């Protein structure tokens, strides 16, 4: 599901990177800190940290060799490096970083509690831990919500694949509770909304053909005729502005907390 950076970028990467910028500002970390970006993918959060947070270092890690290669190729900055690793077993010593963050990852990790505990472990006492996930409910991440509404209307089996059903972590209260269970203090959750305007229907639909992420992976399983039916249902369901563009929005829930001490 997470292999090709070139296909991920037009699908979620372009919206993730806008959320990442807002999120990094919201983290409010001091300059010259050492950051960890857990599940860095193609590098959206690392890039935002480099652009906005004046870090001493950022280490991005991800189990996808394809995404890590993409991040290494596209982010040439002496402060950043990328390693292949898993969120449930971070390759860093206790208290070895100041800030650990993660964008759009925790719902994909089999044991999110373990990942949150790992992020808390690797930051020093007083260090910051933060994360965000898409808000998959109504009025949240509309790009993906519209997709699963259309898919479920045509295919009863798609209902079980709907990310809002599969990922109960992607909501305000469960996300905050995850950080509290990890032993973090001053836990806060806030919504981050960015406008997501598509030039036309193809601009919306083409990225779903790239097989990166749950919805595109579902499209890849459909025979041509059913794929066409889904495309046409979405074409008629999506809102249109006067100029033919498709005005949607993408909202994430962001959580931050501090390691005690
Ligand atoms: C939606 S992408 C987000 C990537 C990037 N952080 C961003 O904001 O664009 C999800 C990422 O989670 C990574 N991932 C999935 N399971 C993981 C795990 N167990 N540990 C760390 N990363 C994981 C995937 O490889 C993928 O890069």
TrEMBL record:
Protein name in UniProt: Methyltransferase type 11
Family matches, as InterPro entries: Methyltransf_11, SAM-dependent_MTases_sf
Organism expressing this protein natively: Streptomyces venezuelae (strain ATCC 10712 / CBS 650.69 / DSM 40230 / JCM 4526 / NBRC 13096 / PD 04745)
Keywords, comma-separated and alphabetical: Methyltransferase, Transferase
Taxonomic superkingdom: Bacteria
One GO term of the biological process aspect: methylation
Record carries keyword Methyltransferase: yes
Methyltransferase type domain mapped to chain residues: 37-129
Record GO terms (molecular function): S-adenosylmethionine-dependent methyltransferase activity
